[in-house]
Design a protein that fits this description.
Helix content is 37%, strand content 3%. The chain is mainly α.
């Protein structure tokens, strides 16, 4: 057995240039190929870098602007998701105003969930029931995912609730629009979007937190 092992070891040394001292594969020293590098693109758009990349690509291949699209590439995109801002002139097309009955239904769902004494992570369509508003939100969900891609739900009286209650209402109503939640790092399922440009310089804001 020892002879067989030694024979295999000798073959490996011969063909793979294994060092006797540390058994590390020798790396060819004249290899000039480098691993592909990611483009210098940051989270926030940088016009200067974009212009530099464009100039570099055009210098490498001046015919790029005249190049035809790849075979099979659509010459025109047609979908409910394809639109311009000017296509939407009346906010009634994307704003849904809740009725008093629907607002009460949300309030009843809040009380129902609080009565279950469950952690906030278990908010769902079953623990936050909306018998008549739920189907309406399902229709809005289809518009969100396969239609224009957005809608605004209005008239929830947020000032009437505590911070935690507003979180429950937000998660509960959202569960009828989409039942999956993203988790970011550090672990969280709810993000607050704020405009900090009036209080902080652009360089200090960075990416979303």
């Amino acid at each position: 057995m020892a002879v067989a092992v030694q024979h295999v070891t000798d073959i490996l040394k011969t063909h793979l240039s294994i060092s006797n001292s540390n058994h590390v594969l020798d790396t060819p020293r004249n290899d000039t190929t480098s691993a592909p590098q990611q483009p210098d693109i940051e989270y926030h758009p940088d016009e200067t870098k974009w212009k530099a990349r464009t100039a570099r690509r055009l210098a490498e291949d001046p015919s790029l602007p005249k190049a035809s699209l790849p075979e099979g590439w659509p010459t025109k995109l047609e979908s409910p998701l394809v639109w311009k801002g000017s296509d939407w002139k009346d906010e009634k097309e994307w704003v849904y105003e809740l009725s008093e009955a629907q607002i009460k239904e949300i309030d009843d769902a809040l009380k129902h969930f609080r009565g279950l004494d469950k952690p906030l992570g278990l908010i769902s369509t079953s623990t936050f029931p909306l018998p008549t508003l739920g189907p309406v939100l399902a229709d809005l969900s289809r518009e969100l995912h396969t239609g224009r891609g957005f809608f605004v739900l209005r008239t929830i009286p947020v000032e009437s609730y505590t911070r935690e209650e507003n979180v429950i209402i937000y998660a509960g109503v959202s569960s009828h629009v989409g039942n999956l939640r993203a988790v970011q790092y550090p672990p969280s399922v709810l993000g607050h979007i704020k405009d900090l440009t009036s209080t902080l310089p652009k360089e200090a804001i960075g990416g979303p937190q």
